[in-house]
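Support request, please re-run this one:
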Amino acid sequence: MTTNGGSEPVIRRTPVFCTIVPPHILDHLATHEDRALADSALRTLQHDSAQRTRRRVTAVRTAAAVTAPAPATAQPRRTIYDAGHRTDLPGTEVRQEGSEPGQDATVNRAYAGLGATFDLYLKAYERDSIDGNGLALNASVHYDVNYDNAFWNGDQMVFGDGDGEIFVDFTTSVDVIGHELTHGVTQYTANLEYYGQSGALNESVSDVFGSLIKQYSLGQSAEHADWLIGEGLLAPGVHGVALRSMKAPGTAYDDPRLGKDPQPATMQHYVKTSRDNGGVHINSGIPNHAFYLLATTLGGNAWERAGQIWYDVLTGGELRSDATFTDFAKLTVAAAKARYQAGEESEAALKAWAQVGVQAS
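Re-run finished. Output below.
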């Protein structure tokens, strides 16, 4: 932590480079006998690896940024750019806040997805944009050629068009947009380190709020939600329904080209690996499933009680940047008690974590 010349500390944040499609899927595609598929996956992997290398700096833990509750009249500030199938960001401005939809459906979906994310954080949690202080939301579409991913780079969203055979346009799923933007929220709050269990928590928090953004925008209760991440991203003919399932981790896809979904639902099947920053996209299935169990036990709208508990932990200032699943679980129980006293919420949280094999008492 440094100071700005006065008594107030300057909070130093290290943004992570996170993509919605995990490396293990692209690794599998890169070995496919179809050279066109393999080449698209390999180019995506090489690009993503270079971006991660640039950001591979250990996150510095400081106090969570304190922000005042946003006024109900707060409005997003969105700008969409067209990268023109190049990698120079942001590209050419094609739509700004308040302008009418154009002919490009990708641009319109990106604009709507940024708005849906802003709405959930504002209306459910009184948070004014990603940083809590009205941060402008920028996104670039049509990034690179056949780019099989979408990512938050610490400053903006970026969407590829997909290769058309395995993945379609990455603006298709609003939960993907919400997932990536939530990495920005984590960046400005708990700043979870992107490795091992803290990295899996970083990924899981993004899945949780990505799913909640989708549920909120569709008006779905916990009972009626699909609890899928990336539903609609897989092209016709791919054997799968999404990238991940919070309801049933390990069942999202099983395809000769993609491989089989490796996510565990409980600690009994926790994956120890040095790849993917210690399996951050794999072991996130465990806290994901805990949230699903809590939300469906409590019922109603998941962004209300269950989501509020997770949000309180993320923004409360007590979550360490190197937190383990147990650390996070205990804080959720404490947050439930603090907000809802001795109600069903804390007991449901304890039970949900116990079901996935994480000690929360």
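The longest helix spans residues 196-218. Residues 124 and 304 are 7 Å apart (CA to CA).
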